[in-house]
């Protein structure tokens, strides 16, 4: 089996998963690797026939691995059966037999020292050859070194071992020849040389295979662009081998081709008419978690289809994205599959996909992207150029360089380096028609070729250094490198010494953090988490917890699969360990992909589990520990709760009652993460409801009075979000929460706290009862005092609060007296849209009072409001238009003022073209006010207001109907506008408004109908639309306005009828 | 109960129970003494080094020869190269149930190879000799271990006299409990310790 081979090919071309370290590496599960393994199998099989002598060459060290072959299956001359184990009689030296295979539980351990025996095991493994060779190569990362000795170990850079060896042999032969001349030949020496020659020959044979494999993998990589039936069959077959009933062992329950099983000559299973679309086959997959998946294998990739219908006919429609590999698709669809496949070999791939998807979606964490963005294009370019080069030595060198896993690559997270590959393959696909493309920048190409390996490393360095402040490597770097060496090569004792020493560095410093990453320390630290040694795990987590404050480290930890391991540790019985893991997760889960990883690996549930700690009054070391576990759990959930799906997962895992319980804790350190989590989750209505009904408002209010600014801030922030609901606002008042909120306004130096407190005041002020209390607490004066010199986050809330409070008329006067109007008007010139919405509303409320209006007018506030109608944000437009209404109503000489805005009337009429309902309603209201002035009405009529209003009449929105009808009523008072409305078809729809539930709509509609009914044509239309009956009802209304308008309208209709009759009879 | 008379057992355990350094319950002591007698063949017989090492190996998975010898030394209070049943029980008391201070003292004794009250550079070198997997030549290996010793001294040698006193050791361990077994495992892992203790409290043990 395995044998042989291929130092360089394995090291470079084979895709190893990132979890190296010791012999723990796994061959990744890719087609490329499959091909490599296949070649090796073919090579080994029949090695003995080709090279009889070489196959008997005794290895320097045995190749040892866990085999699936049972000892019974192997029978060969010279094998001795010892209690079920088979051991060869021939010995290499003393105790070491040339071959042994021992039973060891379900797995057997096999150890071989010649190619001959390797070949035998491979034969005996029957159809499991692939598994066998994989196991062997995974256990022996550098088989050549085992076979021929350390001197031939695969090394980075130039490998001169073979030349040195030749030299040595030649020298010895010469020497021997000399001796021979002098005295008799020395047979022993002769034999030794013979053996050395054999070794050399073997080495050359292996080298040839190595080269062959590399060439093959290049060919493979270049052609691997579209799916073919063979590839599909291959992938499905492999997954079939990994499928079965055992949930703990298998990745899928079943996977098979869908359909009648007929295979066309071209290898496709899809019906011919579908082959035209590129379909190759259909695959049905039953995962352990979830429904049957139906997958189309198309030449463009794998994607889900809609599955067969009741009659068994496939619905071929594509659902979702296409994937280049079946495994990646399944990983996206089945968490269990992902987990199991990770356990086997391949976990690097997921992340790769992950990141790839992330990059395509718009990331919410920008920092997530930045590192890849920088050099991806260069690399793909480089690769494209590479591919356009001729084969042969040069290409091999290139390839080598490309795949070389330097420390840096690994430290960066392999996916970042593999990803370009992927992109490129896609790129290549597009270019398939002209595979030997000329590069666009030949100079560049030459550059990147000439000095391949150093060049690429430099590029790498450049990427690295971008983020570093000083270009010279600091001394810590070397010291840390040394410590990592001990971590890698030491036993538990040395590891712990190294871990403790590492903690003496200033781990809060970026230089040290990055140094650990750059020298490959992160992998080792993360690998330590997978060991059984509690002490090593604790030591490692203590370091990870510190350095994960760095964003780059976080990403690297996630890339290396650290989150999965830490999530597992959350179930550990050791409480210290749990705490550290949760705290580290809290640090790492600060970006979206990490949060998703935590969720997908069941981390949320486990973290919620940590919250469950008994609250005891007496303090004991044990109880303190429990509390500490809960606190760290809350910290991690706090980080995780920034994703919507995680909030949902937390709720389902029962986090809410546990958080409610912890909220009773007297301990500030506990409360901060708990309230932090709550306020984060309060963006979801389900949490808001729960916070209210689980009685958490009382505790939140209580902690508003805490000594800790941070805690106060989170409490205020939670109330801010929850107070969207009336019941909550009432509870805040009932528990006396308004007083501490107002007193927080004193903390002007802490802006975050101020923003949260003012936000809470704003939302609480929506309830009139709260407004009264705020009045008593003199909140208005204090809020007005905050209108100057505050950051926008605070201002938005302050102004929002003032806007709500000013709904109560006495407060409008208070705002004026406190000097609030000038700063408010001043804020109208700002650019922050959230702020503008609130400011316009507040100014509008203030303008309801005449005295305030005088000041606003003097400060030219109406002009400012008007210019906001040009803002591109519809919310700002609407809010400005609403604010304009009271201004026009209350300003002296309003008509004159409006006319003085050049182009203002045209602007507002043009807003009737908006798609935004609120904008339309507010503009209608403004137009109704503008139209009170006859001259202005004339102008807007000229701007075509009538047809534009008429066009809106079909709306069903009551708010718009109300203001639209009002505007129509007002606009009737000019020229032949009444007739025009009739002509534009506005009348009949208006009649329908009378069926609305909203009395305000009735009132304005009746008024409009009354105005329109002054035109006889309109009367006829109305009558035909059945206006009389509803109007009759409205005459009986309590509302005098409505009564009068309805009566007037009926009167007009009646008069027309009478006039008609009269005309007929006379 | 064949090897040992009921009343002897009771007497011995009573006596040990009164020692304040003994942290076991009566039942546990009896079990331990029985175990002792079963191994040695009698209450007043003594346990030799090889048998003791077998126990360390089987029950606590210890493998390091030097350290197992040192553990024996730490148990063997009168340095006669044999353990009496009292030494056995009292030694295990620290080994399994010792408070942090006791364990610090115990570990220090284990690591102080020549018993002169200091852990010297040479002793550290000796203890750490096998802690790094052989990669390179002999000299490199020695060099690596020397560096490791320097790391330890930097971390633990507070009075800078190039050796560790008991107070150095104590101070360092109190600051970082992970350093308790700084020179190699000489205490049971929590898992094996709990398993052993559970065995003691059960009526029918494996011994």
From TrEMBL, chain A:
Pfam families: Arm (PF00514). Signal peptide: none annotated. ARM repeats lie at residues 561-603, 654-696, 736-761, 778-820, 903-945, 985-1018. Residues 357-471 are annotated as: Disordered. Residues 428-439 have a biased composition (Basic residues). Residues 376-393 have a biased composition (Basic and acidic residues). Residues 444-462 have a biased composition (Acidic residues). InterPro entries: ARM-like, ARM-type_fold, Armadillo, GSKIP_dom_sf. PANTHER family: ARMADILLO REPEAT-CONTAINING PROTEIN 4 ARMC4 (PTHR46241), OUTER DYNEIN ARM-DOCKING COMPLEX SUBUNIT 2 (PTHR46241:SF1). This is Armadillo repeat-containing protein 4. It comes from Magallana gigas.
Automatic annotation (TrEMBL), chain B:
Residues 63-98, 99-134, 144-179 form the EF-hand domain. GO terms for molecular function: calcium ion binding. Pfam families: EF-hand_5, EF-hand_7. It comes from the Eukaryota. The keyword 4Fe-4S does not apply. SMART domains: EFh. Gene3D superfamilies: EF-hand (1.10.238.10). InterPro entries: EF-hand-dom_pair, EF_Hand_1_Ca_BS, EF_hand_dom, Recoverin. Keywords: Calcium, Metal-binding, Repeat. The keyword Metal-binding applies. This is EF-hand domain-containing protein.
């Amino acid at each position: 089996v395995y044998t042989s081979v291929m130092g360089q090919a394995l090291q470079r071309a084979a895709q190893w998963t990132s979890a190296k370290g010791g012999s723990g590496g796994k061959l990744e599960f890719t087609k490329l690797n499959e091909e490599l393994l296949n070649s090796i199998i073919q090579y080994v099989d029949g090695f003995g026939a080709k090279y009889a002598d070489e196959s008997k060459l005794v290895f320097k060290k045995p190749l040892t691995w866990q085999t699936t072959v049972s000892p019974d299956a192997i029978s060969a001359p010279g094998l001795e059966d010892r209690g079920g184990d088979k051991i060869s009689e021939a010995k290499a030296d003393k105790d070491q037999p040339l071959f042994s295979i021992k039973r060891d539980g379900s797995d057997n351990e096999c150890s071989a020292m010649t190619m001959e025996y390797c070949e035998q095991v491979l034969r005996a493994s029957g159809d499991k050859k692939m598994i066998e060779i994989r196991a062997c190569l995974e256990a022996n990362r550098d088989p050549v070194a085992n076979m021929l000795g350390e001197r031939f170990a695969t090394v980075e850079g130039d490998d001169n071992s073979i030349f040195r060896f030749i030299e040595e042999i030649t020298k010895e032969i010469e020497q021997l020849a000399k001796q021979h001349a002098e005295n008799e030949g020395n047979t022993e020496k002769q034999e030794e040389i013979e053996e050395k020659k054999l070794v050399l020959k073997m080495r050359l044979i292996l080298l040839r295979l190595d080269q062959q494999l590399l060439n093959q993998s290049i060919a493979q990589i270049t052609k691997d662009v579209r799916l073919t039936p063979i590839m599909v069959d291959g992938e499905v077959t492999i997954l079939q081998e990994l499928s079965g009933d055992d949930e703990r062992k298998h990745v899928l329950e079943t996977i098979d081709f869908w359909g009648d099983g007929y295979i066309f000559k071209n290898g496709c299973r899809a019906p011919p008419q579908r082959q035209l679309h590129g379909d190759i086959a259909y695959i049905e997959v039953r995962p352990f978690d979830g429904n049957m998946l139906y997958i189309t294998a198309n030449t463009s990739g794998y994607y889900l289809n809609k599955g067969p219908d009741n009659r068994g006919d496939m619905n071929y429609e594509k659902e979702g994205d296409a994937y280049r590999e079946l495994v990646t698709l399944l990983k996206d669809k089945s968490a269990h599959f992902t987990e199991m496949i990770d356990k086997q070999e391949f976990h690097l791939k997921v992340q790769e996909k992950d990141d790839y998807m992330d990059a395509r979606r718009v990331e919410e964490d920008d920092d997530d992207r930045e590192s890849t963005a920088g050099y991806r294009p260069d690399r793909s370019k480089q690769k494209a150029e590479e591919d356009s080069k001729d084969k042969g030595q040069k290409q091999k060198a290139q390839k080598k360089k490309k795949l070389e896993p330097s420390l840096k690559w690994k430290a960066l997270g392999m996916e970042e380096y593999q990803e370009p590959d992927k992109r490129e393959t896609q790129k290549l696909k597009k270019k398939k028609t002209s595979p030997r493309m000329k590069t666009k920048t030949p100079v560049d190409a030459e550059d990147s070729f000439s000095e391949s390996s150093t060049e690429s490393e430099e590029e790498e360095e450049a990427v690295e250094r971008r983020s570093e402040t000083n270009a010279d490597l600091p001394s810590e770097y070397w010291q840390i490198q040394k410590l990592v060496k001990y971590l890698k090569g030491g036993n538990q004792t040395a590891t712990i010494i190294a871990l403790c020493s590492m903690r003496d560095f200033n781990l809060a410093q970026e230089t040290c953090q990055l140094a650990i990453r750059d020298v490959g320390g992160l992998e080792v630290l993360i690998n330590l988490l997978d060991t059984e040694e509690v002490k090593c795990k604790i030591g490692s987590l203590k370091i990870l917890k510190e350095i994960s404050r760095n964003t780059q480290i976080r990403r690297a930890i996630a890339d290396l699969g650290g989150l999965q391991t830490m999530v597992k540790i959350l179930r550990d019985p050791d409480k210290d360990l749990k705490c550290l893991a949760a705290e580290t997760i809290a640090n790492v889960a600060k970006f979206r992909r990490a949060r998703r990883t935590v969720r997908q690996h069941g981390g949320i549930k486990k973290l919620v589990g940590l919250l469950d700690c008994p609250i005891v009054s007496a303090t004991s070391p044990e109880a303190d520990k429990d509390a500490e576990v809960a606190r760290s759990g809350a910290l991690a959930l706090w980080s995780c709760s920034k994703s919507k799906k995680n909030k949902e997962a937390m709720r389902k895992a029962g986090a809410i009652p546990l958080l409610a319980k912890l909220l009773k804790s007297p301990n500030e350190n506990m409360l901060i993460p708990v309230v932090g989590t709550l306020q984060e989750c309060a963006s979801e209505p389900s949490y808001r409801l729960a916070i209210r009904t689980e009685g958490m408002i009382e505790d939140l209010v209580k902690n508003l009075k805490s000594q800790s600014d941070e805690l106060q801030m989170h409490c205020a922030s939670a109330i801010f979000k929850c107070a969207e609901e009336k019941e909550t606002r009432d509870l805040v008042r009932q528990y006396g929460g308004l007083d501490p909120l107002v007193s927080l306004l004193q903390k002007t130096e802490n802006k975050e706290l101020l923003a949260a407190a003012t936000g809470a005041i704003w939302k609480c002020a929506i309830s009139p009862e709260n407004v009264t209390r705020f009045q008593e607490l003199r909140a208005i004066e204090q809020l007005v005092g905050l209108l100057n010199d505050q950051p926008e986050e605070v201002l938005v809330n302050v102004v929002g609060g003032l806007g709500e409070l000013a709904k109560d008329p006495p407060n409008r006067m208070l705002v004026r007296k406190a000097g609030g109007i000038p700063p408010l008007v001043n804020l109208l010139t700002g650019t922050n849209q959230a702020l503008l919405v609130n400011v316009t509303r507040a100014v509008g409320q203030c303008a309801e009072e005449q005295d305030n209006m005088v000041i606003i007018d003097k400060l030219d506030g109406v002009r400012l409001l008007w210019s906001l109608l040009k803002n591109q944000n519809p919310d700002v437009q609407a809010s400005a238009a609403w604010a304009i209404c009271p201004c026009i109503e209350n300003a002296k000489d309003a008509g004159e003022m409006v006319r003085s805005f050049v182009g203002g009337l045209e602007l507002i009429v043009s807003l009737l073209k908006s798609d935004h309902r609120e904008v339309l309603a507010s503009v209608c209201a403004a137009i109704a006010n503008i139209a009170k002035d006859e001259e202005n009405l004339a102008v807007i009529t000229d701007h075509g207001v009538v047809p534009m209003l008429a066009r809106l009449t079909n709306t069903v929105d009551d708010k718009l109907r109300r203001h639209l009808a009002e505007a129509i009523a007002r606009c009737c008072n000019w020229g032949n506008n009444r007739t025009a409305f009739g002509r534009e078809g506005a009348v009949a729809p208006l009649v329908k408004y009378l069926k609305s539930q909203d009395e305000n709509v009735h009132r304005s509609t009746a008024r409009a109908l009354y105005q329109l009914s002054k035109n006889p044509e309109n009367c006829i239309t109305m009558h035909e639309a059945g206006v009389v009956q509803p109007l009759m009802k409205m005459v009986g209304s309590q509302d005098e306005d409505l009564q009068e308008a309805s009566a007037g309208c009926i009167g007009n209709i009646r008069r027309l009828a009478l006039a008609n009759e009269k005309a007929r009879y006379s | 109960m064949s090897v040992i008379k009921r009343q002897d057992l009771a007497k011995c355990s009573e006596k040990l129970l009164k020692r304040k350094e003994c942290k076991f319950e009566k039942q546990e002591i009896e079990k331990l003494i029985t175990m002792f007698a079963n191994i040695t063949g009698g209450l007043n017989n003594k346990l030799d080094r090889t048998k003791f090492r077998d126990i360390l190996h089987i029950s606590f998975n210890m493998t390091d020869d030097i350290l197992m010898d040192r553990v024996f030394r730490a148990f063997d209070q009168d340095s006669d190269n044999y353990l009496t049943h009292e030494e056995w029980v009292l030694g295990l008391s620290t080994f399994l149930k010792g408070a942090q201070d006791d364990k610090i003292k115990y570990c220090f004794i284990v690591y102080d190879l020549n018993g002169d009250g200091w852990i010297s550079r040479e002793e550290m070198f000796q203890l750490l000799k096998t802690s790094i997997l052989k990669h390179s030549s002999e000299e490199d290996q020695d060099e690596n271990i020397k560096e490791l010793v320097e790391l330890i001294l930097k971390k633990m040698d507070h009075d800078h006299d190039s050796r560790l006193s008991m107070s150095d050791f104590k101070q360092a361990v109190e600051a970082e409990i992970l350093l308790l077994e700084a020179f190699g495992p000489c205490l049971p892992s929590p898992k094996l310790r709990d398993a052993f203790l559970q065995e003691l409290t059960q009526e029918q043990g494996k011994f």
